[in-house]
Amino acid sequence: MAQIRKIFIVCGEPSGDLLAGDLIRAIKMLRPGLKISAVAGAYAKSAGAEIFYNIKDLSVMGFFDVLRKLPKFLKLKKLVLEEINRDKPDAIVLVDFSGFNLRLAKAINKRIPTIYYVSPQVWASREKRVNSIKDYISRMIVLFKFEEEFYKQRMIRACCVGHPLISLVSPTMEKQELRDSLRINPSQKVIALLPGSRKQEIGMVLPVMLETARLIDKEIPGIQFIIAKSPSLDARVYQRACKKFTLDLKIIDGKTYDCLNIADFCLVCSGTATLEAAIMGKPFLIVYKMNLLNYLLYRPQIKIPYIGMVNIVAGRKIVPEFIQFNARAAIICREAVKLLKNPERARQMLDDLAYVKSSLGEPGAAERAARLILESLQD
Asked: CA neighbours within 13 Å on the CB side: how many for 20?
C-alpha cells in the first residue's frame, strides 16, 4: 500500500474555500500526519492547510472580469505548476472554480492523480467541458445525485457523497441572544439580505435588494433589515450601497447562519446561499444581476430553465427567481409582501424546501469525500 504524504488543493472563491476547509478537516482526522498545501483562504487555513497562495480578490464574475484578471490567473497557473513540480504531491484536489481548474488539470495531464471535488456546472452550460474532465480528471466527487448520473451516462467515473452544507450550516449562537445583542424588538419581523460573496455581486445585487427593502418597509412598516456580510470583503463595499437608504438596517459580519436563523424572510443572491437558506428552512426569493454584456454573453449558453440551486434540485420552480431584467424592486417587493402576508403560501414554500434539504443527503459528506480521495490514491 502506497504511503500518501502530500495533497495539493486548489479552490478560488469563498464558497469553494468553505468546502475545501471542511474537506481538509476531514482528511486530517483520517490521516493526521498528511501534509496539505492549498490555493485557498481562511477556511482552509483554519482547517490545517499550508496556504501556498491566498485567494483573496481572486474570485471573478463574468467574462470581462476574467479578461481583466487574466494576467493574474496566468501567473498563478505558472506558480502552481512550479510548486507541484517542486513539491511532488501525491494528488491534486480541485474544488469548483472550473475556468482555472480545468486548464490547470490539462497542464498537469494526469502526471499526478487529479481529483475534482464539487463539479463544474457542465450540466447547465458549456457541456463541452465534459471532454476536459474525461481527458484530465482521474475521478469526480460530486454533491448531487443527478450529477453522478450525468457523468456515468458519459462514461466518467463519479461518486456522489451528498452536500457538505448539511453538516456546515448551523448557527453559532441562540436566536434570542443575537436578537437581544442587535436590540431587535421581540415583536419585530426580520428580513435578511444575502447579496453574495463577490465584490461585483454586491455592487450589482445589493442596491436592488435595498430598494426592495425600502418598498417593503412602506408596505409593512417596522421591519428590521439585516445584511449578512461576507468576512472576505471590506465593509466599505456594503456601506457605500447602504448610505443612500434610510432604513432600520444592520450589517452583520461573518455570521450568515445566525442571520438566517433570526430571519422571518430573506432576499438571497443566486448561489450557495440558496441552499443555506433551504437548509435553515427560511422562505426567500432569489435575486441576481450581472454586468449587461456578461449577461448577454452567458445567457444563451444556459440550457436549464432555472439558475437557483434549490429549483434545479427540486426540478421545478419552488422559489421565485428575479434575474437581470426582472431584478426590479417593485416586482420583487410584490412577491415578498405576498409571502409575508400569506402564511399558507410561505408554509408551502417551506415544505418544498424541506424536500430539497432531504435531497442533499445525510451529514458527513466531507468525510465520505475524504475517504474516497485517500482510498483512490492507495495501491
From this structure: 35
